[in-house]
Design a protein that fits this description.
The chain is of the alpha+beta class. It is built from seven helices and 14 strands. Strands 3, 6, 9, 10, 11, 13 and 14 form a seven-stranded mixed β-sheet that branches. A three-stranded antiparallel β-sheet has the order 1-2-12. A two-stranded antiparallel sheet has the order 4-5. The longest helix is centred in the N-terminal third of the chain and has 17 residues. The protein is globular, with a radius of gyration of 22 Å.
Length: 266
Amino acid sequence: MADDPCPSEGSSIYTWMYRQGLKGRRIEDVASEIRANGHLIREKDERNYWNGVHNRQLYQGRRSVLSIPGELRSKVAPYSDYPMHPYLGQPEIANRWVPMDKDMHPMIRWSLGCMSLSEAQHFSRLRHGRYVESEYVSENLKGTRLIAIDVDGDHEGKLDIDVIETFAPLMDLTASFYKRDMVIDYVEPDAYSLRLLSLPVSYHLIFSVDRLIPTMHFPEARIDVVGNTANSLRHCKDKIYNGLKPSPMTDEIWNYMLDYIERRKG
C-alpha cells in the first residue's frame, strides 16, 4: 500500500504485519506484497498480523459481530440455538490476557486491548517491583472460541456439595483450574458402601465452542458461564491447572448443565 509500503528486503516486517492486520487487509494480499519484496513470513510475523486483526475486530469501536439476539441473552437456550462464531477460520486470539495486582484489580485498561500471556505476566512482575506468580493474570474470553463454567462450591464459607459433585466429573474431561488448598475429603454413605471422595470445591471448566455464548449468572445453582461475546474476565489467581486441553462443548454437556440449573431452581 502506498501509504505504508512493505519494508525493503533485509528489514523486519514484524510491526508492519501488525499494522496490516489492524487495517483489515486480507492475509492473502499481505503475503503477496511480502513475497514481492523478497521476504519470508516467520511464524511470529503471521501471529502479529492476526494480533492486529483481532485488535481491530474487538477493540476498534465498530459494531461488534459478536452480538447475539436479545432473546438469547435473556434466557438459557439449547446450545445449537446460539449463533455460529464468526472467527472460526482464524487462529485463536493470543492477546487475551490482563495483568492483575495482588487484589485482583486490572493493571491496564483491558477494555481497550489485552496482552499475550507472557507480556501480562512480565507486566505484573515489573509493576510489583519483584517476582509475582503467573497466576496474577486474568483471561478475557471476548472473541475467543472458549467459555468457562465457573463452579462456586464454597459460597461465603458454606460448602455446596450438590454443585461440587455434579460438575466434578467434567474435570476429567476438559481443561480445568481449581483453587489451591480448597479440596475436601469426606465420606458419604450410599445404599451399598462408603465412598471416600476428594474433590475441589471451586473450579473453572474450560470448553472450546463454535458458537457465541453470552455470560450468564445462576446464583441459585452456584455456577456462572463466562461467555465470549463481551469483555469477560476469568481470574486465574491461586488455581491449579489439570493439564488437559479444552474439550469441545456438545449438546449433551450443555443439556447436563441446563438440567442441573433447572433442578436447582426447583
